[in-house]
Amino acid sequence: MKRVAIIGAGPCGLGQLCAFAAAKAAGSDIPEVVCYEKQSDWGGLWNYTWRTGTGAHGEPVHSSMYRYLWSNGPKECLEFADYPFEEHFGKPIPSFPPRGVLADYIRGRADKSGMRDCVRFGTEVRYVCWDAEREKFVLITDELQSGGNRSELFDNVIVATGHFSVPNVPHFDGIETFTGRALHAHDFRDAAQFTGQDVLVVGASYSAEDIALQCHKYGAKSVTMTYRTGAMGFKWPETMDERPLVQRFDGRVAHFKDGTSKEFNALILCTGYLHHFPFLEDALRLHTGNRLYPPALYKGVVFEKNPRLIYLGMQDQYYTFTMFDAQAWYARDVVMGRTALPSAAAMAEDIASWVAREEALEDPYQEIDFQADYMRDLLAVVDYPKFDVDLTVAAFKEWEHHKIDDITAYRDKAFRSPCTGTTAPLPSVPWLSAMDDSLESFVNNVDG
């Protein structure tokens, strides 16, 4: 029997497990599937931990999740087509859930799959290489609790580790002299610790936007965001502002490119993450930055240099869970021989066409259309349950407009489910005032 290894049991790995479960439920014989997860439970980044740096067994902490995170996009745009929110919660809920609500939803769908026995928890993959003679992958793993290790052979390997766990940390002149608190977004856990402080956030993307708003919400005295290429340009509250890139530090004083300077208590680097796969031999590693279509991946998933290797979720993302599912269903069909791959030349040509199209994109609205077209390309050839992709495109674009109108209130809007057609209820407590982010509080936070 063919053996398939999945590395990671976060949303990507769980999507892959659900894809195999769906095929099994439909009467197909599936390969032997083994999923490796170094954490003690599935959920990936959604497993919040107070820990930073290293975990209980000395391994690097994977999660970049912070305590008061709320979805920064409509939940309707990430809704599992085979497990709508209404099925999980038993009723419609508002469109922008907090961390714990989304984590509960992810785990509910995972539990429904019946694939938990396929997951080896507390097991870290240390090394993967390709044995050309046996035409198999060799996986070497460590069991973190016992310290035992083993070597196994697999026909296919699916990398589902994500790419938001290894910080990209730039250097700034004089940063060694900064006497306040300095950390990367990966280690940010609780905005309340910055109450009453002047905070500098380096970055101009989604994590910078959200962490800056978190600090504002929980009472920071001021929040300044500094950008390299362009400001986010939202209508920020009066205690928030944007400045060109910081050039140097002198103690707690940051000096900016526009000649201004300001003293700060804390520095948070929202400077992105690295695609980092130290457990793979170099010939198998994906080398890319954060982009909508990574080169070297056919259909965004199949590794061009060795098509037995598959990567999930390596894109910069508007779509998340549903894109991971579309990829997982396609990957399953490739692994099971349901979908035949074209020649190497044809794969290269297809990759090049997508990459060229991505490089011509000019704004977020074009990027949304691009990623939606990528989704449609995958969904057209798999049996993933149908949902209204056009509705999600419209929702993403409306969401962008809401952010422009009021960056502190866009989470107070409601969207329609592409799976059930139900419009979400409005929250009775606006996000800026909602300090209780528990599941019970949120599902009952409904206007009317």
Account of the protein in words:
α1 (11-25) packs across α5 (321-335) and α7 runs antiparallel to α8 (389-405). This protein has helices at residues 11-25, 85-89, 99-113, 206-217, 321-335, 344-359, 364-379, 389-405, 439-443; strands at residues 3-7, 32-37, 119-121, 123-131, 136-143, 149-154, 156-159, 181-184, 198-202, 222-227, 240-244, 246-250, 253-256, 261-263, 266-269, 297-298, 302-303, 309-311. The chain has two domains: 3-166 and 273-391, FAD/NAD(P)-binding domain; 175-269, FAD/NAD(P)-binding domain. Helix content is 26%, strand content 19%. The strands form five sheets. It has a five-stranded parallel sheet, with helices on one face. Strands 8-15-9-10-11 form a five-stranded parallel sheet, covered by helices on one side. Strands 4-5-6 form a three-stranded antiparallel sheet, with no helix packed on it. The protein starts with a strand and ends in a 5-residue tail after the last helix. A hairpin with a 4-residue loop joins β13 (253-256) and β14 (261-263). The protein is globular and about 65 Å long. It is α/β, with parallel strands linked by helices and 448 residues long. The model has no long low-confidence stretch (mean pLDDT 94). The chain is built from nine helices and 18 strands.
